[in-house]
Amino acid sequence: MALIVQKFGGTSVGTVERIEQVAEKVKKFRDGGDDIVVVVSAMSGETNRLIDLAKQISEQPVPRELDVMVSTGEQVTIALLAMALIKRGVPAVSYTGNQVRILTDSAHTKARILQIDAQRIQRDIKAGRVVVVAGFQGVDEKGNITTLGRGGSDTTGVALAAALKADECQIYTDVDGVYTTDPRVVAKAQRLDKITFEEMLEMASLGSKVLQIRAVEFAGKYSVPLRVLHSFQEGPGTLITLDEEESMEQPIISGIAFNRDEAKLTIRGVPDTPGVAFKILGPISAANVEVDMIVQNVAHDNTTDFTFTVHRNDYNNALQVLQGIAAEMGAREVIGDTNIAKVSIVGVGMRSHAGVASRMFEALAKENINIQMISTSEIKVSVVIEEKYLELAVRALHTAFELDAPAGNTAE
Ligand code: ASP
Ligand code: MG
Asked: Is residue 308 in contact with ligand 1, taking CB distance under 6 Å?
């Protein structure tokens, strides 16, 4: 008999019919002998609808009051699901974050979970009840309602699984697992049976939006086995685990991630002296702009070029700051480029294999795709290329690293 935390996202509880379907599913597990704690999101579109209401009152709603309001979305779904379970003869009880006591800090709209009181839930489980908990919300020390940021129900699920020492945290959603890459770009993308937390973090932070990043971090930190599954289709989903042992048999690369959200900035002809990187990036970070890739060229004539990437939303801001720095330093010029994309190959298998990067560069060269920047880590190689070649690059790499599904075995 296992204790399982099951989290259902907004589309899975988007209508009353779907809530009834979720109840059927939960009942099946429980009839099989498992103890179940369910975490639900608000009905799909509801959180957006609520935020929009607030914006009609004020462009910048007071965060405390915004949390009071958006937390109601989940309060509706927990009650509906509990009703649907009870109707089926399954004893169930719903709790808001405050009632469980999911204690968070006071950072409204992006609060962090500090502690969860598992006792109340454990008592209910012992009494044979299915416990339905509102995702996305908590309460601070002073009793104010808080929320965890968009997509925060994933984090609620994982945090509850950790607090209850659950055997597995299952995230039910509208895809049947984590894929080798976005199936909309590569039709031959395949569902992965398994992926490590480290890989999942890279895939998620690079734009595979199946799971909230914080939830993955949390699960890794507390070793909570996490599984992504389709809400209404049968299947094993993708298990996200700590163990790397089987990676020997696995391909060197687990997936290909990409991101169109970055922009590139270059400052040319800066003096090649100590402290230059700091003089450039200090003011950038002081302007609250996060920098991703950084490249400094080898110097000629005692001057050098310095290039870095930022989020596209920060581009104008960063450009302005950089122009100021350039004038101060007597740099030659500042060049910006927003038509770039980042493509990364990700896999714990590359740790033990040489030549992974060169195989990547070879595949891109064959397609005549120019690489503008490169960065590497233990389990990732990323390149910046011109945005218009993004899809071609992803497809070429997917094939080069033997990730293509055999014919007939695709997402469709
Ligand atoms: N309802 C919240 C949102 O839409 C939390 C969640 O769905 O995970 O962001
Ligand atoms: Mg979600």
From this structure: no
